[in-house]
């Protein structure tokens, strides 16, 4: 069975990072606790302030669908206008079994 990999970026004004960190922390912690979430992370770009890299791995489509219907994602999305999050560039890929490189 294929897993789902979501990768991409979101952008917010660098001046809003300190306001966004608590909301991002809640989102990451809540998502990691969901059944079917195998990995969920946000990372600040070291060269481009305000650019956040997103990486998620989900067991299957049902888990991802539950995630999209969750209360914490609704709260996270509702916070975007106040945080200045506008630009989103996320893609979902089906992946197979990882192998060492």
Automatic annotation (TrEMBL):
InterPro entries: ABM_dom, Dimeric_a/b-barrel. PROSITE patterns: ABM (PS51725). One of its GO terms (molecular function) is monooxygenase activity. The keyword Oxidoreductase applies. This is Antibiotic biosynthesis monooxygenase. Residues 4-95 form the ABM domain. Keywords: Monooxygenase, Oxidoreductase. The lineage of its organism: Bacteria, Pseudomonadati, Pseudomonadota, Alphaproteobacteria, Hyphomicrobiales. It comes from the Bacteria.
């Amino acid at each position: 069975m294929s897993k789902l990999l979501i990768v991409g970026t979101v952008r917010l004004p660098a001046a809003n990072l300190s306001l966004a960190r608590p909301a991002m922390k809640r989102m990451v912690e809540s998502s990691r606790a969901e059944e079917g979430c195998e990995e969920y992370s946000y990372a600040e770009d070291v060269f481009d302030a305000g650019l956040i890299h997103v990486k998620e791995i989900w067991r299957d489509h049902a888990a991802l669908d539950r995630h999209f219907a969750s209360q914490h994602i609704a709260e996270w999305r509702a916070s975007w206008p106040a945080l200045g999050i506008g630009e989103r560039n996320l893609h979902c890929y089906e992946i197979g079994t990882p192998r060492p490189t």
